[in-house]
Design a protein that fits this description.
Number of helices: 7
Oligomer: single chain
CATH class of the largest domain: Alpha Beta
Number of strands: 7
Largest sheet: 7 strands, mixed
Mean pLDDT: 84
Strand order of the largest sheet: 2-1-5-4-3-6-7
CATH architecture of the largest domain: 3-Layer(aba) Sandwich
Low-confidence stretches: none
Length: about 200
Amino acid sequence: MGDPMSDQEQTAKPGPTRLRRFVQETLKTAVWLTVALVGVSLWQARSLLPHGRDAAAPELAGSLLAAEGGGQRFDLAALRGRPVLIYFLAPWCGVCRVSVGTIDRIAVRPWREDLAVVAVALDFESEKEVEAFVQDTSLRSGRVPVVLGGSDVGARWKIDSYPTWYLVGADGNVLTGAKGYTSWAGYRVRSWIAEIGI
């Protein structure tokens, strides 16, 4: 008859079979989670602007928020020759409020020295509403200019949810874009993939 203590010790210790099963289940879960996230991302991207080497970015011009430039105009064409990250937001958007910190962080620590970052406010009632949003978020630092856009801008850029962002290359073509929350690493990976043309 076996020693009861050694039987208890054997069941208490994770053996190679239990550890192997745990690793397999963890990997399976990771694969399914990745497939689900990629699927959601592709589903969201179905209504974005076409992107690639021959996908010219639409016009983007508008007044800067008074706190940013006191009635000065922004024109995307003036940034030709530089890549530009354009972040479309609505002041009532909770995800925008959370994710705008990432945009400010990119302005502080861009993955390319020549990267320009701009936020475009859409779907707002008044300039004061946008000013309040800016003051309540990291945009108050002033590192990211905020352009006041109208419904025409939203239509040209196919903005149907917030936040939506696009990376426009130095040549003026839309390289990539996405909807919803994106981390600093997510922006970086997507831009790298777009720049090498995958």
